[in-house]
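Dig into what follows:

_____
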Amino acid sequence: MHKKTTLVLGGFIGLALAGSVGAADMHTQVIASTCMSCHGPGGKSQGKIPSLAGLNKDYFVKFMTEFKAGTRVASIMKRHANGYTEAEIEAMGAYFASLK
């Protein structure tokens, strides 16, 4: 009986953790969607603003970190970057890198 209870509890914990990962992915998609008003649908720019889709994660993180610190000058990106945590910037970098 004890083994069965342990297995059931382990299954519930696994499901709970999977739900947390799904929620994090949804959060990342929501915050990344705000970028798409300037950087194009799906992160694919239609104009002079750079595309984000397929961008190397480390490149994205570096630039966003520089915008946030004020060491990379841009008209609006510092204000946007200031609104994100380091973890959110990392997650958005991975998300945009995954887009094709």
